[in-house]
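Quick question: what would this complex look like in 3D?
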Amino acid sequence: MDLRKLTAAGLAAKIKAKEVSVMQAVQTVFDVMEEWEGLYHCYVTVDREAVLRKAEEIQRCIGSGELTGPLAGVPVAVKDNLCTKGLLTTCSSKILGNFIPTYTAEAVRNLEKAGALVIGKTNMDEFAMGSTTETSAYGVTRNPWDADRVPGGSSGGSAAAVAAEECFAALGSDTGGSIRQPASFCGVVGMKPTYGTVSRYGLIAYGSSLDQIGPIAKDVTDCAVLLEAIASHDEKDSTSVPRKDTDFTSALTEDVQGMRIGIPRDYFGSGLDADVAEAVRGAAGVLAEKGAVVEEFDLSLVEYAVPAYYTIAAAEASSNLERFDGIKYGYRTGEYAGLHHMYKKSRSEGFGAEVKRRIMLGSFVLSSGYYDAYYLKALKVKALIKKAFDRAFSNYDLILGPVAPTTAPKLGESLTDPVKMYLGDIYTIAVNLAGLPAVSLPCGKDAAGLPVGLQLIGDCFQEKTVIRAAYTYEKARGEFGTPFAESGSVTVPEGKEG
Amino acid sequence: MANIISDETIEYVGILAKLELSEEEKEAAKKDMGRMLDYIDKLGELDTEGVEPMSHVFAVQNVFREDVVTNGDMREEMLQNAPGEKDGMFMVPRTFE
């Protein structure tokens, strides 16, 4: 039996049935890492000894019957912006290069309560600001489908680790598409829940009104299992929403009969790659065959989401990142003349270019004289975008479209033109502005054999509709495969060894 | 480029952002910010007269709790992350001369 191919739920069942030990599962992951981590670089930190100790403890608790959670013994990866007590948490930034949290993020605690074993911390764009995982201070992550390409971002390490079978599932965070877009580029399933569903306690903040933690996994079932495990009402996060309907696995049924699905005509304009458009339309056809009522409509305001988002996200980032000042934790510069100079120098040396760019923009749009024209204007546009979605959801149960305009770009192609890179987020960003749940799942490949993602967006709190449609599509689609499915399908650049 | 960012603006934003940019970084920041603002100016095309700015998508309210300590004493662990520490406290550079 090849353990690598198992899903998280599949592995959990085998561990429960005592067919596989936790140690075997961990060893499988370590073996894959041995083979591929040198090339893909999905992780910032893996503490092998601690993982082995933990594996023994979990095995003991399973044996004694104390641990019966749905993920008991399953090795999972966690994005490096989620605090883990006693384990280095860098946010892929130099400024947190030595930060050891004194507590664990609530979502990670929930995952551990469900029995999961955190195997390591995954690489990301610095402070989650980026769409390629190239802004990490600790090197780029490569896409397992083609190592010359980016895995997407900012949760690129998590998505690549799942695709490369270097873990059985992972957590990411999504501020403007940072779970869905890398899931799309890496041919795995990623889900961003409704804002407030998963506690943000212990998530190092970027854009607090937009940030939401979610799962990245091999299939829709695993996504539902993980989301059900991490969702909770938490007093430590004042935007946490009390919900009673978080039994997401109950929605894993093949049934879209009569489901009304709208496709925004304005998502299929110029800029959308023809292969992506074809694959997404094909997926819509599959759902229609299964009994859904699929039609096109005009969502409107699509081109205003990106400028509104970057204004709001940059403003919130400039405020959230004020805490990195070289006093309580993180990097402090070596030489300085007085307190203020120390602040400035530590920050300037500790933050990378993209982070500084967004802090500068955010400080500007919040400064007196520009606040109304930029920040307030963006919040008003956000209200209009939310209204447009409300109108859409009065007619449809679900919105269907692409995740990103293209498949994964080559490494080094994106960062030179920030506005162009930001435009790559055009289909994901409005979902965060409106606080909606959405999933990304593979629906085909382009001419180069790279995965294409399908995005299904639900109304607030309607994760179950999203999961039901995603599950139905996935069953109809059949196995999507992995980068390793066929021999010779792994693209290794010349001169590089696995 | 419609938005020309002056040296003074970059200086001022640098003070607000608590960032010390090199001359090279300043020039790049001027160009970047100008381009970004040109792009953001697109929002001006929309009539938002009478639209209430939306900070949160749900009607959130202040969440209150009793002012009691619920976490334990983690001074030692927390200070281990501090770049400067003395006598169980964070050490900062001299603030007053």
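Answer marked as accepted. Residues 23-40 of chain B form the longest helix (18 residues).
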